[in-house]
Write a structure and sequence with these properties.
The complex is a heterodimer of chains A (227) and B (453). With 227 residues, chain A is an alpha/beta fold. Chain A is 43% helix and 12% strand. Chain A contains 9 helices and 5 strands. A 5-stranded parallel β-sheet of chain A has the order 2-3-1-4-5. Chain B folds into 2 domains: 302 residues, Alkaline Phosphatase, subunit A (3-Layer(aba) Sandwich), CATH 3.40.720.10; 128 residues, Gyrase A, domain 2, CATH 3.30.1360. The chains are: A alpha/beta (227), B alpha/beta (453).
């Protein structure tokens, strides 16, 4: 499916490039790739990060597994080949979004290491941030937000990651989250902190404090009658 | 200016130790010394100059110390209060060292290769990567993030170093608060002595914040001779006096020794809520019945206030939803507010609340002038101007008993005989430059001048 069919084509660049768009937006284009089992919290964390970044004034967009399968990838199923093609298309879309200067969050199980590494290979150094949303299978199964584990155990869903299909953990993810131990706030905070450290979003002067720290300092100053 | 006469000539190493006693008034120290309660400090008067000094307006530690550290007014250094505002969108935030727009003394000296140690100096959070050591001030929330270089964190943690006392206890449990004051102070000194002995330094600044904290919660009790707390107050300042004597002995005469505060203190008669006055007099309205802060201000509002006494006009083209046109309308509104506010009295006693009102152009100049308050109200002693909104009354007697004053800070310099003169904390960096015989390229930007020449 990934062979190059069209041949008489040339890549066209304009006078406006990614850097110009990034200047306009006051951020750097990036793909933050959440990977993990179904029910591990990929979408939940991605949506929380989206909300926080938006509130900080950033253009951010979430490409979510189920949503993409409603449209762009509606012709794909869950066989190894279809999974590969699914991720390839998503990867290309994420690449375009990143080039557009958008902070792109993707939330797909993306179980195969080689598929994720292919997407990484599309991007420039530093533009692909792999986030391993680590959560034990038992915990994911306990959560089972869409009732899928139940169906998989009953044999109603074939090739279900973690039950009847493999999941290959990232070897060197940029960020590793433990959604069983961490609160949603902590997980989302870790992602945002990483983006700040890497200069993808600017550390605004008023953001010397995290939300928790803001509470502490506000209390201290208000006890002193300074706020 | 004064006639400089150095009493003892030091060698040419030009090292300086600065001891900051936050919020310790000149007149208070005079009184304690007269009563024989601070014998070490009194002995120091014979071999140095002890002078009254002005603070800054508005009179806030973070603004005053930033002027000390940079030698410039707030429209140049941009640290305008414990809280400040950003526009588009309108929000209120807590400024930190990241907001300081010009180099501080630690950075200036570091760049020249001098070794600096700074402990607890406002505003030094987050810590800067200086040539030496920075332990941040009370704006730090987590000790692990308050130390540069990081390897000193484990030492501080081990000794149980504390960034600041728990002020809540000052309101509710005075005994615990006093214990906390002594503990925090003792640990600060332990760390300071440790670093003094271990590190090679050219500039060392140790900041004592506990003086300000005890003043905030026990000043009135001290002033009125409370049976328990007046003695506790004296006991703490006696410890500070011992520190002065001890440092004098340790530092020897080849190090310059400066001691100073950033503002004075007086008892609070009442807290005063300028936003209540603005609302009641039709200058301030809110979008909802339960506004959370001035950011919920209605677009028709004309003015609002941030602590302490800073008034901002809701100016068109500057504020998010401005209603007052620049030019005549702005000027006449400022005039109108000044004429009315100067006459505000305490509804309970009829006392006049306001001493003076400044226009921004009387006080500030610099790149951040546009962000500075349009008017600054300076109260009479005893009236503590707050920024609270939706207060039922203009005034209220709360749990805080001590407030800052802007004309009663002190300055002491050992081994120098300085002629009395009118000067302020903003003159300190030029003074230090001269003391250390260190010409600073930033000097052309300084707003003050050396008290030595």
């Amino acid at each position: 499916m990934t062979e190059q069919k069209a041949t008489n084509i040339t890549w066209h660049g304009g006078s406006i490039n990614q850097e110009h768009r990034e200047q306009l937006l006051g951020q750097k284009g990036v793909t933050v790739w959440f990977t993990g089992l179904s029910g591990s919290g990929k979408s939940t964390v991605a949506r929380e990060v989206e909300k926080k970044l938006f509130q900080l004034g950033h253009l951010v967009y979430v490409l979510d597994g189920d949503n993409i399968r409603h449209g762009l990838n509606k012709n794909l199923g869950f066989s190894p080949e279809d999974r590969e093609e699914n991720i390839r298309r998503i990867g290309e879309v994420a690449h375009l979004f990143t080039d557009a200067g958008v902070i792109t969050l993707t939330a797909f199980i993306s179980p195969y290491r080689k598929d994720r590494d292919k997407v990484r290979g599309l991007m420039k150094e530093g533009q692909f941030v792999e986030v391993f949303v680590d959560c034990a299978l038992e915990e994911c199964e306990k959560r089972d937000p869409k009732g899928l584990f139940k169906k998989a155990r009953a044999g109603e869903i074939k090739e279900f990651t973690g039950i009847s299909a493999p999941y290959e953990e990232p070897e060197n993810p940029e960020i590793k989250l433990d959604t069983k131990q961490q609160t949603l706030e902590e997980s989302a905070g870790a992602v945002i902190e990483f983006l700040k450290e890497k200069g993808i979003i600017k550390t605004n002067s008023q953001d010397a404090y995290s939300d928790d720290e803001k509470e502490i300092i506000n209390k201290r100053l208000s006890d002193l009658g300074y706020v | 200016m004064g006639i400089l006469k150095k009493i003892i000539t030091s060698n040419n190493k030009k090292r300086l130790f600065v001891l900051g006693l936050d919020g310790t008034p000149f007149t208070f120290l005079q009184k304690q010394m007269e009563e024989g309660k601070m014998p070490h400090f009194q002995r120091m008067l014979e071999k140095g100059s002890f002078l009254r000094m002005n603070s800054v307006i508005p009179c806030i530690s973070s603004v005053a110390w930033t002027s000390f550290l940079t030698g410039v007014n707030l429209a140049k250094h941009n640290l305008q209060g414990f809280v400040d505002r950003k526009l588009n969108p309108f929000r209120v935030y807590i400024p930190t060292a990241r907001n300081i727009a010009v180099p501080t003394i630690s950075e200036i000296l570091s760049e020249a290769g001098k070794r600096v140690v700074s402990i607890n100096v406002p505003v030094s959070y987050p810590p800067k990567e200086v040539n030496g050591i920075q332990i941040s001030c009370f704006l730090a929330t987590d000790l692990a993030k308050a130390v540069y270089p990081k390897h000193y964190y484990s030492y501080l943690k081990e000794i149980g170093y504390r960034i600041d006392v728990d002020a809540w206890q000052g309101r509710k449990e005075k005994e615990k608060f006093l214990k906390d004051i002594h503990y925090t102070y003792d640990k600060r000194l332990e760390a300071a002595y440790y670093l003094m002995g271990r590190e090679d330094w050219d500039y060392f600044q140790l900041h004592i914040m506990e003086t300000d904290r005890i003043n905030h919660f026990l000043w009135e009790q001290w002033e009125s001779g409370h049976e328990t707390y007046a003695a506790e107050f004296d006991k703490f300042y006696n410890k500070v006096d011992q520190l002065v004597g001890d440092l004098d002995a340790r530092l020897g005469n080849d190090v310059e020794f400066m001691i100073l505060s950033d503002h004075g203190f007086c008892s609070i008669k009442k807290e005063v809520y300028l936003n209540q006055w603005l609302e009641k007099n039709g200058y301030l309205k809110y979008k909802t019945d339960a506004p959370k802060s001035v950011t919920d201000m209605h677009p028709q509002s004309k003015a609002y206030s941030l602590i302490p006494g800073r008034i901002f006009i809701n100016l068109k083209g500057r504020e998010d939803e401005g209603s007052v046109a620049p030019g005549n309308e702005y000027e006449s509104l400022r005039q109108e507010l000044m004429e009315k506010i100067i006459h505000i009295t305490d509804p309970d006693t009829g006392e006049k609340i306001v001493k003076k009102i400044y226009k921004r152009e009387d006080l500030y100049s610099g790149p951040f002038y546009d962000d500075s308050p349009d008017l600054v109200v300076v109260p009479n002693d005893g009236f503590d101007l707050k920024g609270n909104i939706k207060q039922p009354n203009l005034t209220y007697k709360g749990e805080l008993v001590g407030m800052h004053t802007d004309d009663d800070a002190f300055f002491y310099l050992r081994n120098y005989d300085i002629e009395p003169q009118e000067f302020g904390i903003i003159d300190m960096l030029p003074t230090i430059a001269e003391l250390m015989e260190f010409p600073m390229k930033e000097a052309e930007n300084f707003d003050g001048s050396s008290v030595l020449s």
